[in-house]
Design a protein that fits this description.
Blueprint lengths: L20 E7 L7 H9 L2 E8 L9 H9 L5 E4 L9 H13 L3 E4 L4 E2 L3 H32 L11 H13 L4 H8 L3 H9 L39
């Protein structure tokens, strides 16, 4: 079957033969090639292929996609090589799929094996779209965490927050709790409690070791810690 002739700067043909498939391809940058997607779509039996180059999938406003959607008629099938070529959000994809269904147009995605002419295919479409969106969210979260760590704003937060440090100090000083008992209460190690109680004040901003001669120390190994003329009460080794 001959494809409709395309004229430069002219509107795409609105009508295509009933029962044929139209392919859609997209790459997000002008430097990327559409050749592989075109080849796959032609091999899949597409009657014609529409392609957007240098267009993000974050928006549905893509000229060739709009032309493809205008050309689709009842009985036609829209084919893409991969689901994310069509869109990047579950909501946008589902809305587009619903509009195609209302028009009597089917949908296929080659990589995921999705074919909405079957109930299984429609179910698979929703599952794959949801997983793809979740994967993008996880990638974005990891990227933001990496950027924060690179600029000194990330890293692992302290195990004991300021209010935990205040409570630990109260239990130690007022109620004479042992270090092991305090550690068990807050579900941290004994050394974490020791480092927290070594800090000047109760800010709990960090747990780096302080100079023993410049930080106030307290008898943390029991209420009856001994002192000597040359030694202040210290942290148990």
């Amino acid at each position: 079957m001959d494809r409709p002739e395309r004229l430069q700067n002219a509107e795409e043909p609105i009508l295509v033969p009933q029962g044929v498939s139209l392919g859609y391809a997209r790459v997000p940058t002008a430097e990327q090639s559409l050749k592989s997607q075109r080849q796959q779509l032609v091999a899949a039996g597409c009657y014609d292929v529409y392609a957007d180059q240098g267009k993000s999938g974050a928006t549905m406003a893509r000229p060739q996609l709009e032309a493809c959607l205008r050309a689709l008629q009842p009985g036609n099938t829209l084919v893409v090589t991969k689901l994310d070529r069509l869109g990047r959000t579950v909501r946008g994809l589902v809305e587009l799929l619903d509009s195609l269904k209302d028009r009597g147009v089917a949908f296929r995605s080659l990589s995921e094996g999705i074919d909405t002419t079957t109930p299984q295919g429609r179910l698979m479409f929703n599952i794959v779209a949801s997983v793809a969106e979740m994967e993008r969210e996880l990638i974005r979260e990891r990227t933001m965490a990496g950027l924060a760590a690179a600029t000194g704003k990330g890293g692992r937060p302290p195990r004991l927050q300021p209010h935990d440090v205040r409570e630990a100090r109260r239990l130690r000083e007022a109620e004479a709790w042992s270090l092991d008992r305090i550690a068990a209460k807050f579900k941290v190690s004994r050394s974490t409690v020791i480092r927290a109680l070594r800090q000047d004040g109760l800010s709990g901003a960090g747990y780096a070791e302080e100079n023993p001669d410049s930080s106030p120390r307290e008898p943390l190994d029991g209420p009856s810690a001994q002192t000597t003329p040359d030694r202040r009460p210290g942290i148990p080794r």
